[in-house]
Every structure is written in structure tokens, then in C-alpha cells.
Amino acid sequence: GNSVTQMEGPVTLSEEAFLTINCTYTATGYPSLFWYVQYPGEGLQLLLKATKADDKGSNKGFEATYRKETTSFHLEKGSVQVSDSAVYFCARFSGGYNKLIFGAGTRLAVHP
Amino acid sequence: GAVVSQHPSWVICKSGTSVKIECRSLDFQATTMFWYRQFPKQSLMLMATSNEGSKATYEQGVEKDKFLINHASLTLSTLTVTSAHPEDSSFYICSARVQETQYFGPGTRLLVL
Hints:
- The structure holds 2 protein chains of 2 kinds.
- In chain A, 0% of the residues lie in helices and 50% in strands.
- Chain A is built from no helices and 12 strands.
- In chain A, the strands form 3 sheets. In chain A, strands 2, 5, 6, 10, 11 and 12 form a 6-stranded mixed beta sheet that branches.
- Chain A is globular.
- Chain B has strands at 4-7, 10-13, 19-25, 32-38, 44-51, 57-58, 67-73, 76-81, 90-98, 101-104, 108-112.
- In chain B, strands 2, 4, 5, 6, 9, 10 and 11 form a 7-stranded mixed beta sheet that branches.
- The N and C termini of chain B lie far apart (37 Å).
- In chain B, 35% of the residues are buried.
- Chain A binds chain B through residues 32, 34, 36, 41-46, 49, 51, 89, 93, 97-100, 102-105, 107, and chain B through 1, 6, 34, 41-44, 46, 49, 93, 95, 97, 100-107, 109.
């Protein structure tokens, strides 16, 4: 079936630490993949995306590479800030772009 | 990116009343909008897909008579929670798709007393 699996949180890091949030997907074919971020009390914001295999999405220091061999789209950032504290959702469309399928979300807390 | 707005951002109502939430695409036209519900510390749950000029498509387990959706124009979809009860208290988020990307509104927090 079509699903998205994220590493469980919460993830707690000190400022300037390296961040990795794992995301894997199951799918037939090669769907577009997304990372969304939700800051406290707000809706979701598109953080980055990749539309085909080997693409790298990047934004605000975050990166994720679409790896078809491992069906993964791990989110990384070299040096996190306190302002990065939020919930991060990995997502992909179901077949035909009818529905966006979300992972469970990973809460990141960055401490000074 | 495309901008989606919601109104109101917060609403408190008494049990038994109906509440309408608006979702607007500000700088693009959206033939399809989506309504989600999010419980605290959980992921988003798709409630329904709103199609301009036609009936909404509801997900399994979502009561269509309870959550009325109207998509009368290419820039506006509304969700009406009818006869709201405390268990309807939640964070409601709308979304619109532009080509291969979905953009989300800021959400509406509903508290039913």
C-alpha cells in the first residue's frame, strides 16, 4: 500500500547540533515527496520537496534527498537553531494526487 | 508559494450551535480544496475533499451531515460544523493544491463549551 513512516519523536537537540529525521515510504512508482513544518499553534508550511528520484530539496538550511534505492527522504540540517523547534511531517501523494499521505510527525525541540 | 487563508483563527461556541470556517486561496484559483482535522500532538486526518461546483467527497467515518462543505467559487471553500459538541473541539486546517504541491492554511481552533 501507500504509506509514510517517520522516526518517532520527540527529538531533543542542543543549538548547533546536526539534525536527521528519518522518513521512508512505500509506493508503486516514484511519487513526489514533501517535508512540511508546523510551528506551535499554526498550520503547516511547505519546507521542501522533491519530485523525482535523486532530487534534493532544500530550504532554510534543511535538505532531503529522494533516494529510490532505500525509498527514503530523510530530513537533515547541519546546525539547528532554537527557532527550528516545531513538528515536522513527511508526506507523499497517493496515486493520482488525490490525497496527501502524512507521516505521524516528529517533534523537534532545540535548546540553547 | 501559494497563500491559503482561514477565518476565523479561533472560535469558541456553545454546544448545539453551528460554526462556519472559511478557507480562501488568495493568489490562485483552486478547483480542489481539502479539509483536515488535527488532534493535539497527532498528525492530520483528512476529512473531505472539496470540489468547486460539486459535492464534497468525505473520508470514511466522517459524517457529511455533521461537517457541511461548500465550495461555491474557485477561491472559497467553507466548512460548517453543525450542532457542535465538545468532542468536535479540534484544530481544523484547510489546504489547496497547486499543480503537484499542496499548500495549507494557518488553521482554525474550535472550542465547543
